[in-house]
Amino acid sequence: MKKINVKIIYFLSFLLTSIYLLWRVFFTLPWNGSLFQIIFGILLILSEIISSFTAFIFIYNKSKFKEISEPKVGKKSFPDVDIIIATHNESYDILYKTVNAACHIKYPDKKKVHIYISDDSNREYVRKLAKEFSIKYISIENNKHAKSGNLNNALKQMSSPLIANFDADMIPFSDFLMETVPFYITNFKKISKKNLSKKIKPLGLIQTPQSFYNPDIFQYNIFAEKKLTNEQDFFLEKLMF
After folding, report:
1. Helix, strand, coil: what percent of the chain each, to 5?
2. CB 78 within 8 A of CB 181
3. DSSP result, 24-71
4. 3-state DSSP call for residue 9?
5. pLDDT at residue 232 above 70?
6. Fewest CB within 10 angstroms: 5, 32, 71, 228, which?
7. 81 φ, ψ to 5°?
8. What is the DSSP letter of 77?
9. 8 A C-beta contact, residue 49 and residue 57
10. Model pTM score
11. Which helix H or strand E contains 206, and what residues bound it?
12. Inter-axis angle of helices 124-132 and 92-103, nearest 10
């Protein structure tokens, strides 16, 4: 019943949006106005068409979402993991929270977790922070390629089969690696509704959702931190109906 209701909502959204766009194209363009009005009227309609098309693609992709069961992996199978924290000009307080969280990530063998803070500004307080937490510090001088140059420089000094990349203001959950690493370890079997086994190829990349504890620009400007969902969550979390 729930899936049927969702399909009805999708259909009505598509139908009403299509009717609206047709009305906009055939009945609202200011053909009798100045050249300025006509040009910007057309540009406005084009922007509405593109945004609507993007929304339909988003809905279509969400409808194709499939749950994947987490594979069961023995603790001895967990490989070494390198964690990169790339920093540019973040303050000590911001970096401290990220590094502290990374150092408290759960893992079967903590010796296999290698944490690097990659500093593209060669700052002394970042070096001291790395020493404080007993993690590895990497610096780069004359960085011409911004963040990508910083990361590439760090990657040259790492050797683990898996890499987790955190921005300087990211605070990972303690079970981040326990939730993501098993998908990389080996092929695993997913049991379908018909109790059939289907092999799934190993993954090359996992992008996890992000949740922000600080309000975004819309929440902040209208004082609605407790009423509106953070804008990033709309794109990064699974929609629920």
Report:
1. 45, 15, 40
2. yes
3. HHHHS--TTS-HHHHHHHHHHHHHHHHHHHHHHHHHHHHHT----PPP
4. helix
5. no
6. 32
7. -135, 130
8. G
9. no
10. 0.69
11. none
12. 30
- Six-digit token pair at 53? 């098309």
Nearest partner of 117 among 97, 96, 87, judged by Cα? 87
Q: In this structure, what token pair is assigned to residue 114? A: 């290698």
Nearest of 218, 221, 130 to residue 232 by alpha carbon: 218
Q: Which amino acid is at 232?
A: Q
- The per-residue pLDDT for 200 is 55
- Is the model more confident about 207 or about 95? 95
Closest CA to 177 of 58, 43, 66, 70: 70
DSSP string over 112-149: GEEEEEEESS--HHHHHHHHHTT-EEEE-SS-SSHHHH
The two tokens of residue 141 are 């001088």
Smallest CA-to-CA distance from 151 within 140, 162, 160 is with 140
Calculate Rg over the CA atoms of the chain: 24
